Amino acid sequence: MSGRIPVSDDSILTRWMRIEVGKLNDGLVSERKSLAQLLTEERPVSRTKAGDEHVFDKDILEELGNKLPTDLQRNLKIPIIFFSDNRVPDSCYLNDPIALEALQILGEMSKMRRMQQGKLWIGKSIAYTIMKKYLSVVQIAMM
After folding, report:
1. Rounded distance, CA 127 to CA 63, Å?
2. Residue 1 within any structural domain of the chain
3. Boundaries of domain holding 126
């Protein structure tokens, strides 16, 4: 015997995966602000979970401001966050009905889509396409 305590390979892998996912999520904004608030800021910025600055693209914010109604601007929290669950490898979900409404107005999601049990599941490719188009305003959180 080597004197080491036997440990399940699964528990080691699970702990390692949690650490790595935590590192990936360090770039997520920790304090989401309304679109209306960000539009008033000269330099729209929030802090990430790691404490760094996340600077929002002012042109994209203005584009959203021009396309979304005022009440939605006050209620929409930025960034819009999609959640990627490692148990569902090809999909992710949105759990914010206001963000869904905004994405529908912007033409990024069909008006036929509805949340079920508080989530709207979509293909990851759709979420990544939206994120590329609205860089700095959309983030994907790893679960």
Report:
1. 19
2. no
3. 10-142
